[in-house]
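Morning, I've got a small favour to ask if you have a moment. Here's the protein in full, and shout if anything looks odd to you:
***
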Amino acid sequence: MLTEKEKRLHRVCFTGHRPEKLTQPESVIIQGLETAIRQAIDDGKNVFISGMARGVDIWAAEIVLRLRNEGQEIKLICASPYKGFERGWSSEWQQRYNTVLGAADLVRFISPGYSRSCFQIRNEWMVDHSSLVIAVFNGQPSGTKNTIDYANRKSVPCWNILSET
């Protein structure tokens, strides 16, 4: 049985912005995410953690699920900040969120409910359980920047697939 430290070596998490904060088209971001995910798989990573926010997190989770369905030996962990996180979203995003949750290998609700700190708690949980962060970061102060800064403090490498900065 692998220890938590050994399991962590094979895990990757994602961080990135909501769609409205990105200047590149969704298709460009998704292609970059898929390229990074395939590279991580080639490097021996096989468990991917999504924070389940609109945009980058859900796109990355959908890619992982598609690759898993195509025969890749990979797993998806959904680390949602709290139950009901998606309630205020459009019906399309809620449907995508619920489809991903339903197909995930493991779902964790990190906080018991909404709080001002629940997103940072979720982000730190993901980094603490990963050996790599795949980021879509536009250089602006944000939760994504906080996650990257936390990963740097914890010596977890980050691949930023977005070169807008």
Remarks:
- The CA atoms of residues 18 and 51 lie 12 Å apart.
- The beta strands are 11-16, 47-50, 75-80, 106-109, 132-136, 158-160.
- The mean pLDDT is 95.
